[in-house]
Amino acid sequence: MEIPPGGNAVTFMPVPGITPVGMRVLGILFGLIFLWSTTEIIWPSLLGMIVLGLSGYFDTINQTITAGFGNPVIWQIVMMMFFVSVLNAVGISEYIVYKIIGMKMARGRPILLVTLLIFAFYLVSALANVFAALFLGWAIIGKIADVAGYKRTDKPIILLMVFVTGISEMGSAAFPLKSWQLGIWNAFSAATGTTPDFLLYMLVAAIIGFVISLVLTISMRAVFRADLSKLKALDMSALKGGVNEKLSLIQKACLILFLVMIVAVIVASLLPPTTPLKLVVQLGTTGFFTLSVIGLYLLRMKNKPMFEMDAMIRKEFRWEPVLIVAVILPLADSLTSDKTGIVTVLGSIVYPMLSGSSTFLVIGAIVFLAVLFTNVGNDIVVAFMFIPFVLSISAQAGISVPLLAAIILISSCVGITLPNSSTIAALAYGNEYLKAKHMIVYGGYISVIYIVVATIVFYFINVALML
């Protein structure tokens, strides 16, 4: 630190290669990381808008606000929050879970049943909401304990609760078109100048999610010696209770509209700008999200609105992801700009350290560091920070740029070991049946399994993409 002559302001010692504006931007970044990790999300994000507007990267605070809230990704997040609120309200999450674990092939097969159970909550978190997956997961696991004859404190039940917590956190990044994940995705796309590859991303996420679900299930018996024998005769009818096995008309309408929206977004992302289907490209993600929400409002049954949209939205809408993404977008732009020199300096530091290393080791290092920092920091912050870090070494390491988005986003959503790692981790530490030792030991085990599985999966997919 140094005090400039004739002034009282305290500034960071300059780093060769990083401009004065870049040093101020770094100071803002570290300050926000500290505040987000130790206080809350909303007021530090608002403060970040102000100080970034005074950093010299933007000429005025109004420009910073325009760069954040004027970005279409904010509108996309709001639209997706509207849609997810309806998915949760009409019971889609419960239907998905019970449909998956109720498969005939899982009856009498505890390993398969538990694998499907864990993966079901991965899907619910991906398609609906991470909090819906978590609370629904704990509730269903409690029912399993009661029906199968376990105590809530028995090892199999504790393991299931921790594993569902971890898989729900991972699943939140499996579908990158919602909440803060969409903001990180957009920031990554802007920094690389690439078109998002949703199909590749979701394929990679699905593979990793299922493999980890299987490995965690096998670990319950092979590593932790949990007794799963009581699940062989699990009474599914008693477990389901009053949950309808068939989709209602309202649920069908919601699911069809959701699937149409997803297909349309994927098609729009794959079409070239010169396509005859120009309207599809013009609508893009923002347009199709908006049309889908309008569709929810217009759907009627017996001359009445099919969904009580206003009540559903008030229950589910959260300002935190909107505000943190709004400040992350202009901050990410400044971190990766030549005006600050940060990416260039990072590359000059990191590349010699990894020079000569194989692509496998570089991918493993990125995954390991992302998981490590997420567990001691915060998932949103780590995902954001890793954009300039990864870009500084990806080209030299021979890593596919579209795959990097999956590596960053999914790896930064494996934080459940410590209460500050993520909101989900904080909720788990507040669960009456889970103790700190459960989260540290079993949560840490999830992190290790993820690092191994993800590194292998990412590597082989990267080999295929680079052919």
Short key terms for the protein model shown above:
467 residues, mainly alpha, two-stranded antiparallel ribbon, 21 helices, 2 strands, 1% strand, globular
Q: Mind explaining what this structure looks like?
A:
- Helix 6 (110-127) packs parallel to helix 8, helix 9 runs parallel beside helix 18 and helix 10 packs across helix 19.
- The relative contact order is 0.14.
- This protein has 467 residues and is an all-alpha fold.
- The model is unreliable at 1-10 (pLDDT under 50).
- It is built from 21 helices and two strands.
- The protein has a two-stranded antiparallel ribbon.
- Helix content is 71%, strand content 1%.
- It has one domain (20-465).
- The longest helix has 30 residues, at 436-465.
- The chain has helices spanning 20-38, 42-53, 61-69, 72-89, 92-101, 110-127, 130-148, 155-171, 179-192, 198-222, 236-240, 249-270, 278-298, 309-316, 319-335, 342-354, 359-376, 379-397, 401-411, 423-429, 436-465, and strands spanning 300-301, 304-305.
